Amino acid sequence: MNKERIKNWVLVGLVLLSFGLTMQLWLSVPIERVVPGDQAFSGQDSEEIYDLSSFVLPQWMVVNFGGQSHTKLIKDSSSQGIFDEVYAGVSEIMEYIFAGGQNITFTEVPSDELAAARESKSIEVEYASAFDTAIFSELFGGGANRESIPMAGIKGLAVTLGANRAVYFKDVIKDAIYRLELPEAHQGLGRLVNRLEEQDPVKYWTLKEIGYSDDNSFYVPLDMSSFNLPVGTAEKELDTSAPAVLDAQASSFFSDMSVVRKITEMDGSVIYTDSQTALLRIDSTGFLEYMVYSYAAGDKNRADIVSAIDAALMFISAHGGIPGQLYLQEAWEVEENGYRGHLLRFNYAYNGLPFFRKGGLESSAIEVTVAGGKVVRYTRNVHHVTRAKIVQKPLLYPVKAADVVAEATSSPGGTKSLPVIKDMYLGYCIDMTGAKERQVYPVWYVETGEGAFIVDAYEGRLVE
Q1: Cβ density class 296-328: b for 16+ within 10 Å, e for less
Q2: Is residue 343 part of a domain?
Q3: pLDDT digits (tens, 9 = 90+) for 176-198
Q4: Is residue 79 a contact partner of residue 35, using CB atoms and an 8 Å limit?
Q5: Which of 75, 39, 73, 35 is nearest to 228 (CA)?
Q6: Alpha helices in 287-390 (DSSP H)
Q7: How many CB atoms sit inside 10 A of residue 104's CB?
Q8: Can you tell me the distance from the alpha carbon of 282 to that of 391, in angstroms, rounded to the nearest whole number?
Q9: Same domain, 195 and 271
């Protein structure tokens, strides 16, 4: 009898121990809480006064130590400190250019000169898209008029750190490269790069340096062992099964809810409209769309990009809030009903890596159209990570991910041919098929001449 009782207690103890270990492995908190607090990237929430510099940041930076020795920096929990230090040094140079009162002279140079600069000790900075120079003028010069600056839009830049210090700008709008010689004063970046090299960071090579293809426009890691990317689940921000929450959200769009009609469609979508000025629609996937009927009181000729971004950020903050790690992805000039304006596309990141949505690869988390100085259209589809766990499994090597895309783009039964890869980097995918909780996992984003693809970075399967 005593033996049976002991066995039962042992069994109960084992069950409790198993439950405890499972809870330690599968944590009901985002990864920002898993990473030590002093290393986690906090983002910027809607309660803070936003700063434009928090939303126009490099997508990545590459530090070239000379020859085939490079490392890549993103604003994640593991390298945020050094990322901030390097970008602070780059920002000083940008302030010298955009805010300085001295005369500066740019020289248009061939692409070969930029290629040579990348092979020397240098820093490359790449933004998500080619942003209007007026944005950088506002960021680094307080909006000062810089007539001597020839660039129309800046996609990236490179700063050389050798004896002949210079900065090179890529203007994809004019399809030109401009060089500016730097004075002796800007030497802090060189010392910072030397210190980083001593720390032996993760090495990155181009596909040409690896021997995979002739492309040398972007960099991929040589060693994946240091990447511990979690998988998890996420919940949609808005749920049509919670009418009180939807009503509260709608009240931020309409000043007088007493004149607003609420319509529930057959597919579960909910529509709010006052039939006069605007319509708000929230569907069962959590996608929100707001449209203005009347453009009255707008300025038809107003098309200032900086004012448009300011209006968009204030609108986002007041209508759902600003998600952590939100960043400006693209900005296009548009015309709506005869009014000039801009379409601003925002995305957000998870521990520094951008989100992609399965079934909506080309869509953005938030889009705002500002025309005539007013927000006339607003879409939002945001998810929040609720649980995350570390996976004890190596990530797929980038060349293997490229092979998956090559097989997908080759003819059935034909010879596998390598696609022209324009860019390749890690991100996170949200599987939109879940009813409430949706799977979140790391992926390789591969942009080719035939379109964009995402490959599961753990399982090696083509996701989309």
Answers
A1: eebeeebbbbbebbebbbebbbebbebbbbbbb
A2: yes
A3: 999 998 876 667 788 888 888 88
A4: no
A5: 35
A6: 305-318
A7: 15
A8: 35
A9: no
What do you get for the CA distance between the two ends of the chain, in Å? Answer: 60
Q: Identify whether residues 108 and 153 lie together within a single domain.
A: yes
Helix, strand, or coil (residue 18): helix
In a domain, 331, yes or no: yes
With the C-alpha atoms ordered 419, 357, 50, 146, is the resulting torsion angle positive or negative? Answer: positive
Task: At 291, list the tokens.
Answer: 């449209």
- Same structural domain, 70 and 186: yes
Asked whether residue 62 is domain-assigned, the answer is yes
Would you tell me how many other CB atoms lie within 10 Å of the CB of residue 379? 18
Q: Which domain holds residue 420?
A: 388-456
The one-letter code for the residue type at 306 is V
Copy the structure tokens of residue 207: 């596909």
Count: domains in the chain: 3
Contacts of 434 (CB under 8 A, 6+ apart): 233
Tell me the pLDDT tens digit for each residue of 282-321.
Answer: 998 889 999 998 765 556 666 689 999 999 999 999 999 9
Q: What is the C-alpha separation between 135 and 326, in angstroms, rounded?
A: 17
Buried b (16+ CB within 10 A) or exposed e, 135-155: bbbbbbbeeeebeebebebbb
Q: What is the token pair recorded at 234?
A: 């996420």
- The CATH number assigned to the domain holding 281 equals 3.30.310.160
| pTM score, whole prediction | 0.83
Residue 316's pLDDT is what? 95
